[in-house]
Please model this.
Amino acid sequence: MENQEKPRKKSGCLKGIIIFIMIYIVCSVLSGIWLGKMLSSSVTIEPNSVYVLKMKGVLMEQGQDNNPFASAMNEIPGYTKEDIVGLDDLLHNIRLAKENDKIRGIMLQGGEMQMGMASAKALRDALIDFKESGKFLVAYASNYTQSNYYVACVADSLYLNPVGTIDWNGLSANKMYFKRVLDKIGVEMQVLKVGTFKSAVEPYILTGMSEADRQQTKQYVDGLWSEMVAGVSQSRHIATEDLNRYADLYMGLQPAKTYVENGLADRLIYTEEIDSLLTRLTDTEDYNKISTSALASVPEKKAESKNKIAVLYAEGEITDTEGNGIVGTKMIKEISKIREEDDVKAVVLRVNSPGGSADASEQIWHAVQTLREKGLPVVVSMGDYAASGGYYISCGSDYIYAEPSTLTGSIGIFGLIPNVSEVRNKIGVDIDGIKTNSHSDLIVNAQYKGLNVEERAMMQQMVERGYDLFTSRCAEGRHTSQDHIKTIGEGRVWLGKDAIEIGLVDDLGGMNEAVKKAAELAQLSDYQLTYYPARKDFYTQLMEAFDQTSDEEKMMMRLKSLCAQPRVMSLTHFPVIR
Model:
């Protein structure tokens, strides 16, 4: 029986592979012909429309072209991917909903979108501006995370499912520390760094927060919470003392009626009651719902101009030649494109990055300077993060905006090299060889024998040279002394609202303010925006969909990379803020 079953399984598997390949080929062909036409078709806004802004998925700086197969691909075994929502699309849509007479109002539906605090504030501010139109703004969800509630509470009315929850519990910041497990397996992490507050290495050499890291983390977490409490207090007319008292009760575990009783929500309604709610708000049963992707495809009506302001997105971890974030080689190519465009008169660099490769950061910094050398003003708009390498690529601009809750600074640098000599001895592996010069085998020694005093001193000097270069770039860009930068550097993380006082940023604001400043510096009375890099089209998304890497595989690749060579970075790993 077993011998008969095995061929059937192989046959079934082979058929599945053949069908998969056929579907893949068909999709690839159609994506360039039929789907291209379908996706490029314009969307018509009908009278009595309601913009339904679904608060779910992952909020990123730049949206992607609509992918009609996204939901279908999530059904493929082994393939899961959160919907990517562009902050640029949402801000565009909210502005369009305010200005278009056919749109009667906005409904925020759901409350579990993954987003940072600076992005949440940008979204919240846009909704507050929308309310000036006099149109309705309502919110409904079964569950609200804290950041989503911070956004949704600006609504005229906030509704909740009768068995729903509002996570109003306060913030915490946590890290995992690996020193004890590394000790058990016999791995020593050799640290070379500059910066008392540069805490990225601490999980490998400590069992808990250092006092310096505890100090800076408490400062920015308290700052984020204060801003969140102040915003909710203003929108819901609840005293900040009461909001903190509710958080102490861990509202996420309280019964739904408690939210209404304490003013966090207005009413408890079931999902099927939404239709009658919108009917009442629009004064018609014949209202139309319009989605985020549909509304985002409606172009804004602006006069044509030969003057362009380039908006360059820099989002994610900074790497040298590969990765899903800010890849140095790719970013430099985008900057070169901008520099070669005669119609571009100014640049807005939107940075949302915790940092990364020191070398790539320096290369991107230099590329930004070539824009300024051409006479193009460069204005930075910071998102959730613009720290370490993220600040490095920002500091050489003409003007810097940050949100109050932006995490920035972290001016420091470190190197991290694992020493596995104890493991090697335990399992009985010996190393021998020859060398032509005194330190030809430094890399081998570092990993398999451990750095000696002279080698450690040499590598520490390299790290210190990197820090000296980093601080000199910051001093030059911020028109201050290097000594001043070093006093506020040391790897310390600052909130945007505090970074103004110490001279790391110029003003508080978002993309709108950055664009206006760029136009002012370039002396432009009329202009159009052009975006770099280009959005990922459907075909690119389709290719990426079949090239997914699991979190476990990513971790193994990261560990392998770490063990392959000494790592000199400027990346700060922030605690998880919940």
User: Anything to note?
Assistant: The radius of gyration is 26 Å.
